[in-house]
């Protein structure tokens, strides 16, 4: 619309300027031709009365007769002959008469004219040499200069400017209206395309556009519909494949639990009798027992991931002492003497969380630090007040840290860094399960490298204001 308006403005202004110039030229040209023609006729008609050589009185009479030709009395005439001069108005200095006009009249037999603006007024200055009336047309030496005010012509020009200005305003308004109509016709399908694109981005892949006409916008709408249909088909196929994969993992995990339970029971019995077996058999029994434990842990992790994917995971919230919960997690796994802790006093930081899932979060992070980092491993709990009430749990190891190219992927499922994480007892799901459990609580978890060395995992869980510890009073 702006472009259309600018084009219309330029077009209207250009047309108005050209029209004004042509009309102004026509008005002034007509006035100029009329004055010159009339001056020639009068100068020739009254020339025989001059007598030759003329005296100053004859020149004055000649000037008066030419000036009286104009009924309105607007003509001012100067007649010169050699050093003699006379005017139609006594004392008139003819300031409008320039030396250039005098020189041009003296050097040419043609009529010379010039428009001069002085004192805010425009005047037409005409000069000509009077010739003898014989056939030779020899110049007599008498020169006539006429000054005619252009008041009427200027009024015509001013009226023309006003008319052009008045005509441009409706033209611009009409251009704006046409621009609005044109813009509406163009922008309506563009707005529809923008809204459809937003609906696609929101996941409504069945969005389609109405195709009207055969112009470029119709082609664009048709292409959008084809792209949306292809995207919908691809996403549907991917979702079906993902659903089948989830069902497969859940079914396999479920089917494995029963034989694994039996295998675990058998390996427990074999572990008790391993001391009475020969060394090679005892080694094999312990290996089977360890691998069975790993397999059972993997199956449990797969079952947990399947519940997250299916949306079946639920929180069983309870208000607990976070520091005490962390202590129980470390004690139940025999890490009390292995892990350094920086925990607040009892009941200093309380929160409504799912105790089982918080236990999984802390256990996974500490276990990951012990397996892939180096001791000492530190666990810290603190409460933050700004920008929002948070319980902050940090697990920091003293290992080499996490490579920069690995950091963005540490919470992905089954991800293992080739350089830092070779085959180990981890399933590759622990950190993914940790992230899901934290997300269910409305918190965040992130991994980074500590400036002093080692990897640090930070969990932030939201707290209510009344769950924050009281600030110490001075």
From TrEMBL:
UniProtKB keywords: Kinase, Membrane, Phosphoprotein, Transferase, Transmembrane, Transmembrane helix, Two-component regulatory system
Subcellular location: Cell membrane
Keyword hit for Phosphoprotein: yes
Domain Histidine kinase intervals: 251-465
EC number from the UniProt entry: 2.7.13.3
Reactions the enzyme catalyzes: ATP + protein L-histidine = ADP + protein N-phospho-L-histidine
Domain HAMP: 184-236
Gene3D superfamilies: 1.10.287.130, 6.10.340.10, Histidine kinase-like ATPase, C-terminal domain
Molecular functions (GO terms): kinase activity
Pfam families (UniProt xref): HAMP (PF00672), HATPase_c (PF02518), HisKA (PF00512)
Primary residence: membrane
Source organism superkingdom: Bacteria
Protein name according to UniProt: histidine kinase
